[in-house]
């Protein structure tokens, strides 16, 4: 935001220098990036009056001018300009003058004739025809302003304003306006603020806006308020110097009186405005609605835009005429022959404007303001101000009446004033009256102990916000330095302790921690042989990716681990034992953002790594986090893993992970010539079933009893099912069940295997008798018989 100090003086009186002003506003919370004094590069350039023009004796294209410059005698200047006339007022560079860019002018001879200076064009003064529309692009600047001969050119053409550049944070959209910064200035310097209520005379001829326009707001959720007025008998001409000067100092190019008025109001109040040429509004009807998919319109910048149904547009009875809050259509603007205009002062939802501007690749002054949030309560005052300026400039006749479609919530926000809390919070000692004075200077009002937040302060929500307002105006540099009181006790949460345990366990097992990007290429899913109809291919797409290789958010961490494995293998690293706790992003139907699921992913190759190494790592992790026994079942339908060498971990029917050997075809896709083993565990699920409580168990008082069983079963029967049956049958007296032999061969039938278990039993109530131990064995054999397992004979 560039602020014209001359414009600011309409609202507050300050005597500070630009440097003092910049420092004071920065300290009160409005950061100043810098300031620039217009015309400061220009030296010794004055207004001159051409007294006579004579031909150069030795040059057909040069003339000799005698120019009065307020000195005892005229100066003689030789020029090649053809537009200079006797009696014209012109900028004159005297001997020793300096122009923008450091160009110096000295007297000298041109073709043998003394020239004591130079006549200037607009470009040489750093100006354009937009600043002075009556001037010509190529030629001497013939001044038509009311000025005196010999007057410094800066004051003569109002090139002496100071422009202060502010960096406005996103939470203070009210400061994207002259009035907003004037309010900050008044509070900072403790001076009165002069505000002006627009006054519009109107046509008073019986004409009414209803004869010209109808407005319908269909998308009231995206457009809380739409206010419009009509101006007839419009006269398009340049704006007066004072308006052009203020626009120029604010970084806005003057165009014509009607367009300049909309820009002037936007800068003054922070409320974007648009002026429609009523000729191009079909049916004299404005409809604020969502666009239809595929609708198109050429915007004022000459680019065809295609809309989607989530975009808000302004249309007439037939077609779109503007992108709401962003830019008007090609034929919605003001033209030289415009006679009737509609001034639009509307409020659009910031999120909607931001999404639309981003999708269309457009960013304008209007969209930048709407994105940060604007109160709907400002639309009426701003459209009245625009019409007041129309009457002030004689740019047309304001038709009586106004259309105001208002669906906004006008209930003001309130926050309780708590002086004692604020003083403790800030470490200062202010009275309630002093706090109230500060708040009232910023536009707040009081209703008993309740602070009524002004409509333009959308950032105020809590008492801490009020404390910040008081602190910044009081002065951060005045708040005394105090030592912290009380005690600080930092305690990690159970979740942090849990994840720290996992990290420490993996490191103790000899694994390196890695970190990978969460965004991947869609091709990665092909590399791990993910089926075309897999739900995991439904990924969140990044709107502005760095490239195709980083265009989606991953739904599985396995491709990321395989990328690390491939990089290490192809860089001749003989082995890799790595792990990562990384996020998977699963799209959620009922919300905009995906579910973020943390996963522990382990990847191994080389260094004698095999399935059992990986299995042991997983079991160690489960043991360290205190997780009760989990179910392990074979997995044969996951194409990423080797069939028959993959297992799924579950608990109470819920899947908590998978581990196994990666399919050779997947390894081939990653150019890995070694066997790779990967496990993926759901960290959230592990946390739910973990138990960090440690309970004391005394040493056993009574001896243990063991029984060995050799069993025959189908070769395909998983060992885990046998162990489940044994554990369930023995019950509480079971201390340990251990598999110590597996045999396949001639001494057993084909497609059968022999498995041998050692069952250790112990009671904490007394020594187990043979009858109790034998009874447990009988229960085991009965339970095993149900799953097709018998005692080997």
TrEMBL record:
Cofactor-binding details, from the entry: Binds 2 magnesium ions per tetramer.
One Gene Ontology BP term is:
phenylalanyl-tRNA aminoacylation
- InterPro entries assigned to the protein according to its UniProt record, in alphabetical order: aa-tRNA-synth_II/BPL/LPL, B3/B4_tRNA-bd, DNA-bd_dom_put_sf, Fdx_antiC-bd, Fdx_antiC-bd_sf, NA-bd_OB-fold, Phe-tRNA-ligase_IIc_bsu, Phe-tRNA-ligase_IIc_bsu_bact
Its needed co-factors are: Mg(2+)
Q: Which SMART domains match?
A: B3_4, B5, FDX-ACB
Top class in the EC scheme: ligase
Q: Which GO terms describe its molecular function?
A: ATP binding; catalytic activity, acting on a protein; magnesium ion binding; phenylalanine-tRNA ligase activity; transferase activity; tRNA binding
CDD domains for the chain: PheRS_beta_core (cd00769), tRNA_bind_bactPheRS (cd02796)
Q: Which residues form the TRNA-binding domain?
A: 39-154
Residues annotated for Mg(2+) binding in this entry:
459, 465, 468-469
EC number(s) given by UniProt: 6.1.1.20
Q: Where is the FDX-ACB domain?
A: 700-792
> What cellular-component terms does GO give this entry?
phenylalanine-tRNA ligase complex
Top-level taxon of the source organism: Bacteria
Which Pfam family, just one, is annotated for this protein?
tRNA_synthFbeta
Report the principal subcellular site.
cytoplasm
Family in the record: Belongs to the phenylalanyl-tRNA synthetase beta subunit family. Type 1 subfamily.
How it assembles, according to the record, is: Tetramer of two alpha and two beta subunits.
The record's section on PANTHER family has: PHENYLALANINE--TRNA LIGASE BETA SUBUNIT (PTHR10947:SF0), PHENYLALANYL-TRNA SYNTHETASE BETA CHAIN AND LEUCINE-RICH REPEAT-CONTAINING PROTEIN 47 (PTHR10947)
Q: What is the name listed in the Swiss-Prot or TrEMBL entry for this protein?
A: Phenylalanine--tRNA ligase beta subunit
Please tell me the species this chain comes from. Answer: Massiliimalia timonensis
